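Suppose a classmate hands you a notebook page containing two proteins, each written out with its sequence and a corresponding row of structure tokens. How would you begin to make sense of it? This section walks through that situation. The first entry is reproduced here exactly as it would appear on such a page.
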Amino acid sequence: MLDQLNASFNFMQQSLSLHAQRQEVLSANIANADTPNYKARDFDFSSQLDAALQDSQAGMSSARTLAVTSPGHMAGAASGALDDPQLGYRIPAQSSLDGNTVDMDMERVNFAENSLHYQADLQMITNHIQSMTTVMRGSE
């Protein structure tokens, strides 16, 4: 049963972490909208989520363990695909004279959409925890 809970929370945690990383990438694009020769970056969320889940299921993340510097420390595992999503460059819909490829309209839409997905993930985690709490309290 503990494995099922862990798998359920693992998916939600991976999704939430990737949405947070994508938000950082999109924020950087927006912040550099006026920077000459800045190239807009992004990553494919679904393929990165699949890779992160495959890494965690295959145990690849446990292959890289954190350093234990004292006998009292617990061994931990570094996260896998979340450390470095495969960032790509955006192809601009319209070229600019200064070489900047940030399209503010597209960035705003992507930023808002990613924010909604992040909030939805948080709500799903909250609902899941509340459901488990209700079940545990009912079995007392």
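The notebook's second entry, a different protein, reads as follows.
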Amino acid sequence: MSTEIIEIAKSRYQAGKLAFENGKYREAVENLEKASALLARNTRLAGEVEIWLVTAYEAAERTEDAIALCQQLRRHPHQETKKQARQLIHILQAPKLKRPKEWMTEIPDLGAISDNDSKRLVAVKPKKSIPRQKSAEPEYVDLSTVNTRDNSFIWVALIAVGLTISYLVWLSF
């Protein structure tokens, strides 16, 4: 394989990673697929590109393609690629958990707003908060109602600390 083709594949690979990290998953898939097509399947670089391609497929909501590619990568000659493919296949095939609606935050689509509308201020409804109790005076507790039976451990600990300190002082002389 010529070095020119490898350099083109590396530049596509870097472009795919950059697109993925910027949230442009379709563009990342395109670049990574092109880089993968240029490389020999059994090389370390091809395995690395295809692992990134698996994550790009999943991010682009093409889970079936991601799982199929992971199945192939489990038989890759490079050991690290095999290991990553085995770990990813478990993640991809794990059941999807459903989240309650109150855990989710809706993000409005701002692409449909015209320039004139975007200049308006949007009022945000604050979430209900728990009212805080602000007391200027300290709260006093009746000591006759406090359970002091469990405090015997404190006396034992204080005696042990006192004996240890006196023993250390005695050793220093």
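A careful reader of the second entry would note: The longest helix spans residues 152-172.
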